[in-house]
Design goal:
337 residues, alpha/beta, ten-stranded mixed sheet, three-stranded mixed sheet, 41% helix
Length: 337
Amino acid sequence: MRVTVCVVSYNTADHLAAALTSLLDQTHPDLHLVVVDNNSHDGSADIARRFSDVEVIANRRNLGYTGAANQALARAADGGFFLVTPDVRLDPGHIAALATGLEARPHAASVQGRLHRMRPDGSVVTVDGQPMIDSAGHSAHTNRVFRNRGDGLPDDGSYDDPVEIFGVTGAAALHRVAALHDIALDGEVFDDDLFAFFEDVDIDWRLKARGWQAWYLPDAVGRHERGGEGARRSRLVERLSYRNWFLTVAKNDDPGSLLRHWHLLGATTALRTADLALTVPLAFLGAVRDLADPRSTLRKRRLAEAHRTVPNAEIVARWFEPFDYRAWVAKRIRRGW
């Protein structure tokens, strides 16, 4: 399988060289590595150009994670599309294991491996003497919260088996190019209205609506330095995360399912709103302004609904699990809200 690898870069000079070295060390024999730099100001594009086997697309403005991913996808004529962030390091056989797994599952659109949490120095975070899980795929919940399976838990053997999952993380996942084109809306695969954050959940949901599968394949191992929490929270990250949650639900969900779970959705909305309004009020105000005009999202919803082959109520019934609110609140208390 030909695999096009896309690294989206925006001021990632501290991570990019190590990420590209990790990717060029992959054992998979047929890789095309593309770095899309979103007008970085820290020399990221120049770092990428030092690697002769890497194609560099240097944008004159920041097109977001979605715009950059769409640019790189246009370079992928067929086969697989591996989307990875610069703060990920992969074991040498990672992409080969995912490609083998994807080829063996003709109904699978997306596969991801076992990601451990990584410190800035490259070492793995541990819990009870075991590597900490960063992501074993996406889980969906009845309150419309979407999480990384195993996030923060020890890798104690609970995630050793391949399993079908709701979807895959945007940090490091392999997609079937044909499946991505199957869910394109007016030629757009990754939703440019989202810019960054929740674009992976949107892809998960739209693939499910077309009958595609996603799989977790634990033999593909990597490390991820997760940002955007605690001291690393930023106004832009929080603004996009809050508004894109609403946009993703509005685009993909159905009124009947939302009505059945209205009390759970209401509780989650209240908690998310209070969290953001109290901790990053300017991000909250910006998100509210963004949500004032939903016309583009509603247009894309109509296109997606016309293209759907699996009723959303069926997706919700199969994949949306109960949510542990106590663990969620405890996590926010630990990070200092």
